[in-house]
Amino acid sequence: MYIGTTGIDGLHHIVYEVVDNSVDEALAGHCDRVDVVLEKNDIVRVTDNGRGIPVGIHQIEKVSALELVMTKLHAGGKFDKDSYRISGGLHGVGVSVVNALSSFCEAFVHRDGKVHYQKYKCGIPEEDVKVIGESDKRGTVIRFQADPTIFETTMYSFDILANRLRELAFLNKGITITLTDDRLSVPKTHEFKFEGGLREFVEHLNKNKIVLHDDPIYFLGQRDDVEIEVGIQYNDTFNESMFSFVNGINTREGGNHLIGFKAALTRIINEYFKKSKFAKKLDETLSGDDIREGLSAVLSVKVPEPQFEGQTKTKLGNPEVKAIVDSYCADQLTLFFETRPDVIQAILEKTVLAARARIAARQARELTRRKSFLESAGLPGKLADCSEKDPSKCEIFIVEGDSAGGSAKMGRDRTFQAILPLWGKMLNVEKTRIDKVIGNDKLQPIIASLGAGIGAEFDVSKLRYHKVIIMADADVDGSHIRTLLLTFFYRYMTTMLEGGFVYLAMPPLYKIAYEKKVFYAYDDDEKDKVLAESGKDPEKVAIQRYKGLGEMNPDQLWETTMDPFRRNIVQIKLDDAVEAEEIFTTLMGEQVEPRRLFIEENALSVSNLDV
C-alpha cells in the first residue's frame, strides 16, 4: 500500500524512503552528505552525517525513540514541525515500512559520543537498543535486505538509483550524495554534488542540444513561507522538457505550483511580445505551447505543509501556492529580461516561429479532419481492424513491411487483434515541428488508427487499443523503426507511454527442427540451451535463422509472436523522464558527436546485430 508495488519500482522505492530521511536532515540544515552502498547479497547501506535518530526513551510509548521510528507508522521526526519545517515525506511512513519489508534491518546511530544499535527481523526488534561502542562521528546508518518473499526481485539497478540520487543532488545544492556498487569485482562509485542547483540541472537537460542563450535563467528566493527555485534555458528543438518538484518529490502530475509558473512565463513573455516588432507580423498572441517550445525548465518549491493529490499522490493541491509562484516568477522574469534584452529577443524569435507552425498545424488538422484522417470514422485502408469494441480487450500490431503485415493479418485472432502494416522509413519527429508531423503520410495512419489525437490534443481515454505492439524485424532496420516509433510516441503521445500501453513484440531468431518437432529460440543462449537439453543428433537438426518477420508463415507468426499465451512481449514504460529525454535527444537529435560517443560506449553490449 505504501510503496505502490512489489515489483522493481517498489524495490527501489524503499531505498528512496531511507535516503529521503537523510535529505530531510539536509533540508533542516543538519546534514551535507549521504552515502548509499549496494553490498553483496542484495543488501543496501545508507549513511548520513545528520544528527542521528534520537535514542532516548519516549515518554508515552516507554521505548527508545529509535525503536519507535523504526517500527511504528507516522512516528518520524518529520511530523514535528520544530524538527523539520520542510519535509519530503509523502506518507510519513519512511524507514518503518522499509524495516517491515526487509528480511533484516540494522540501525546504527552515532550520537552523543556513542554508537547505538538495534537489529530487526521482518520489522520486529530482536533486542532493545544498546550501546556497542564509542564514536566521534554523528549520523545514522541504516542497513537492510529486502525480503525476497515479498518482492518479485531483490536485484537493484545501479542506473535507476543513480538517476534518482543525481536528481536529489540537483534539487539540494551543496549536498554530496554517493552511490557505490560493491557487488562488482571492481567496485564503482558515482558522486553527485551540484553547487549550482537547478542552474546545473537545466544545463544537464540541454547538454546535447544547441542552446539559445549560454547562461540559464536562474532564481532562488522565498515568498510567504514558500521557497522557490527555478532554472530555465531554451534550446533549438521543438519540444519542451519541464520538471517540477515539491520538497524533493517529483510531481509528475504537476499541480498548482506548475500552473503558477506556466501562467507567469506565458504572461510575461506575451507582454514583451506585444511591445516587439514581431507583434505586427502575427495576428494573435503567443500561446503557452508556443512559449514552451524548446524550453528546458525545472521548478522546485518547498512548502511547509504540502497537500498531495492525484492518482499517484504526486500532484500539489495547495491552492495558495499557485498565486505565490505566479507573482514571484513574474517579478523575477521581468527583472531578468530587463537586464538581458538579448535573451528575450532570442526567445521571441523562437516562439514566433513556433506560433506560425502552430497555425500551420491547425490548418493541417482541419484539412486532415475534413479528409477524415484523424477521425475514427475514416480509418486508414491498410488497417485490418478487430471486431471487439472494448479498448481494454483490444490490441494493435504496428508491423514493419507489407509482407509481414500480410502474414500477421492471416495469422491473427480477428476478434481482438488489429494489424497496421507500415511501409518505408518514417519521419524522425525529433527534428520536425508538429505541422510536418501531422501532414506526414507515414504517421497519419498511426494517428488515425489509435484515434486519440496528437500532441496537446492527445486524449489517452480515447485510445482504441490498450495494447499498442510494435512488431519489427530483429535487425538494424527493425531497431531503427522501433526507435522512430518510440520517439514519436514519446514526443506526441506521452501519456500512452506513462500508462504502459506500448509494447515491443519479441519474434524468435531461430527455428530449430528435429525430426517432426519444431522449437523456437529467441536468442543465441536459448538456441544453445535447446540443443544441449534435447540431446539431439546434430546431423539431424535443421536450424533456420530468421532474417525478418516476412519469412514466417501465418501459423508460425501466430504461435511465436502473437498468441497471448505463448508470445514474449516487452512493456515500455516511462519511469525516468530525465533519462528518457537525454536518450532520445542523444539518439535522434541534431548533434552527431553525442550519438557517436554513445555508440562507442555501448558497442560491446550489442547482440543480434545483422551486418
Summary of the model, kept short:
With 611 residues, this protein is an alpha+beta fold. It has 18 helices and 24 strands. The strands form 5 sheets. Strands 1, 2, 3, 4, 5, 6, 7, 8 and 9 form a 9-stranded mixed β-sheet that branches.
Overview of this protein structure:
- This protein is an alpha+beta fold and 611 residues long.
- It has 3 domains: 8-192, Heat Shock Protein 90; 198-363, Ribosomal Protein S5, domain 2 (2-Layer Sandwich), CATH 3.30.230; 376-507 and 570-605, 3-Layer(aba) Sandwich (Rossmann fold), CATH 3.40.50.
- The chain has 18 helices and 24 strands.
- The strands form 5 sheets. Strands 1, 2, 3, 4, 5, 6, 7, 8 and 9 form a 9-stranded mixed sheet that branches. It has a 5-stranded mixed sheet with strand order 10-11-14-12-13, sandwiched between helices. A 5-stranded mixed sheet has the order 18-17-19-20-24, with helices on both faces.
- Helix 1 packs parallel to helix 4 (158-171) and helix 10 (402-411) packs across helix 16 (554-562).
- It is flat, with a radius of gyration of 27 Å.
- It starts with 7 loop residues before the first helix and ends in a 9-residue tail after the last helix.
- The model is unreliable at 77-84 and 370-377 (pLDDT under 50).
